[in-house]
Amino acid sequence: MAGPVGATAAHRGISAPSLRPPPGPRWALIAVAVAAGVLTVSCLLCVICCCCRRRHHGHRKKPRDREAVGLSSPQGTTTSAHLVQPDVDSLEGGPQHWGRLQLSLEYDFGSQEVRVGLKQATDLRAWGPGSTADPYARVSLSTQAGHRHETKVHRDTLCPMFQETCCFHVPQEELSQTTLQVQVLSFKRFSAHEPLGELSLPLGTVDLHHVLEHWYQLGPPGTVEPEAWGELCFLLQYMPSSGRLTVVVLEARGLSPGLADPYVKVQLMLNQRKWKKRRTSSRKGTASPYFNEAFSFLVPFSQIQSVDLVLAVWARGPQFRAECVGKVLLGARASGQPLQHWADMLAHAWRPVAQWHHLQLPGEVDRALALKPRLRLPLPGS
Predict the structure, then answer these.
(1) Given its phi and psi angles, is residue 332 left (phi above 0), alpha (psi -120 to 50 degrees) or beta?
(2) With contact defined as beta carbons under 8 Å apart, do 364 and 147 qualify?
(3) Separation between Cα atoms, residue 247 and residue 267, nearest integer Å
(4) Which DSSP state fits 283?
(5) What is the percentage of the chain residues whose pLDDT exceeds 90?
(6) CB neighbours of 325 closer than 8 A, spacing ≥ 6?
(7) Distance between CA 343 and CA 130 in Å, rounded?
(8) Which PANTHER family has this protein been placed in (predicted)?
(9) Weakest-pLDDT range from 242-251, 260-269, 347-356, 368-377
(10) According to the model, what pLDDT value does residue 184 have?
(11) Cα separation of 197 and 183, whole Å?
């Protein structure tokens, strides 16, 4: 019995190792296979991403290379000129950058008057912070020094709607030598007004037998000539409840050095008739007198729209006689900056509003007022 048992044992000892393999190598092979698969997929993804990036960069670089060659080439092509031309125009300040002005012109051969209709302006160019302006237009003729028309000031816009008409008396034989001049400026309350653009239109080149309405290109602004009659600064305040109008004459500047002892007359007019007047004391030996004198007038609220305020600078001339240097008209019949000052005073009741004004020729203000003579009362015994 021992023989068979030993043979069986020997047979088991030989066959047991071949029938049951060790578990370690199988799991190692699986782990290696999984790792190899992951690495293979990662490598494929990296290759695909790199190809996509190269194609993308290649498409973007080609236009840049063409632009660089076109711009740097000494012999510019049509494409390079198209690319750089807008910048060159902006640097040169072409007329298209100063805006446009719409005007209507008409000549009345009966009354010999040129009627200028200021319609609107568009695309004005502002230089200050915020890229906005307070524009107004100033119209004059080259043959009529001192006679001009100013529109109302329009706040915070580069496309003002003027809709104003002014007239100038021009004999027919002088039309060919007359040039219409329009300046568009930005209003500044306490500093020089900023020029925005200008238009010079020779009337001899225009057919005035018909009413003309056109858009005109504004040219670059020139230097606004200083007023030969000087400037006056004063303050206005109106209190509706008490009906008190206060005028504070502050100072003047730019007066002719040949004038002596300047002073200011303040005149209030009601329904085109002289009503009340005051005057400052004179200042000796200066072309820039400082007054700082206040005057009050009682004007009921029901009459404030019928009142005209005239400030006139007087001085002794070379003949030692008092003469009027210039005037400023405020009220409902004023125009330009004086009208805006008057409107600001009414819109901001109780608040004092100060502003500089250019002096106008006395005759021009008198024509605007169209003064009626005082009523002559009968004297006793007549």
Answers:
(1) alpha
(2) yes
(3) 10
(4) -
(5) 30
(6) 229, 230, 255, 256, 259, 262, 312, 313, 314, 315, 359
(7) 25
(8) SYNAPTOTAGMIN (PTHR10024), SYNAPTOTAGMIN-8 (PTHR10024:SF249)
(9) 368-377
(10) 92
(11) 6
CB atoms within 10 A of CB 364: 17
DSSP 3-state assignment of 196?
Answer: strand
Report the pLDDT value the prediction gives residue 27, as an integer from 0 to 100.
Answer: 65
Residues 6+ positions from 365 with CB-CB distance below 8 Å: 310, 327, 328, 329
Helix (H) or strand (E) holding 251: strand 244-253
Residue 250 burial (C-beta neighbours within 10 Å; 0-12, 13-18, 19+): middle
Backbone φ and ψ for 362, nearest 5 degrees, come out as -55, -40
No. of helices (H) and no. of strands (E), the chain: 5, 16
Rounded to the nearest 10°, the torsion over CA 97, 102, 106, 111 is -90
Distance between CA atoms of 32 and 251, rounded to whole angstroms? 99
* Contacting residues for 57 by C-beta, under 8 A, at least 6 apart: none
The CA-to-CA distance between both ends of the chain, in Å, stands at 184
296-319 confidence digits (pLDDT tens): 999 999 999 889 999 999 998 666
What tokens appear for 162 in the block? Answer: 């003027």
What is the distance of C-alpha 239 from the center of its chain?
Answer: 32
Helix, strand, coil share of the chain (percent; to 5): 30, 35, 35
The SS3 of residue 57 is helix
The pLDDT tens digits of the residues spanning 192-203 come to 678 889 999 998
Q: 21 pLDDT exceeds 70?
A: no
Q: In 3D, which of 180, 151, 179, 175 has the Cα closest to residue 163? A: 151
Q: Are 178 and 201 in contact (CB under 8 A)?
A: no
DSSP 8-state symbol, 219: B
**Beta-bridge partner residues of 106:** 115
One DSSP character per residue, 222-239 reads -PPPPPTT-EEEEEEEEE
Kind and range of the H or E run holding 9: helix 2-19
Q: What is the mean pLDDT of residues 159-174?
A: 91
